[in-house]
Design a protein that fits this description.
five-stranded mixed β-sheet, Ribosomal Protein S5, domain 2, 29% helix, alpha+beta, 18% strand, elongated, 164 residues
Length: 164
């Protein structure tokens, strides 16, 4: 004689033999980020460049001065540099980045974007700060062009000396 488990349709889940696990929702980027408003802001500076960076949870859009990042930065080293904070924190596909940058040259602007993005990520999520600090992404680079001195051709270059 075979015994089949009988299930009572009126039985509650606690009474049935089957164990059900509650559905666990994966944490979204919005739940991870410390969002007080729609965006988290960060400001970065490098040489004469200033970058104002806004981030929000999203699909990974990266826009600089209303242009895609690959259209704005033509050099591969600059493209990789501005993506470094996202690679370090592993948020490439979960955060949208919007940047307004001006002043200076292309490499200075890339450095300003890196610092601004790193500051915004550190402000948005406290756990990102040690990772960003380990990669020196939260330090401002203080180097600037040395000024030209009078009586010389440049900052250190002198006019050619003629003995006779």
């Amino acid at each position: 004689m075979s015994e089949e488990p009988t299930t009572d349709p009126t039985a509650t889940p606690a009474e049935s033999n089957e164990t059900t696990t509650p559905a666990v929702e994966p944490k979204s980027a919005e739940a991870k980020l410390n969002m007080s408003g729609p965006y988290v802001w960060g400001t970065g500076r490098r040489k004469a460049s200033v970058a104002r960076v806004r981030i929000r949870p999203g699909e990974g859009a990266f826009v600089i001065n209303k242009r895609k990042v690959d259209d704005y930065f033509m050099l591969d080293k600059d493209r990789q540099a501005v993506r470094t904070p996202l690679d370090v924190t592993e948020t490439n596909k979960s955060i949208d980045v919007f940047v307004n940058v001006g002043g200076g040259g292309i490499s200075g602007q890339a450095g300003a974007v890196v610092l601004g993005l790193s500051r915004a990520l550190a402000k948005a999520h406290r756990d990102y700060e040690p990772k960003l600090r380990d990669h020196n992404l939260l330090h401002r680079d203080p180097r600037r062009v040395e000024r030209k001195k009078y009586g010389q051709r440049g900052a250190r270059r002198r006019f050619q000396f003629s003995k006779r």
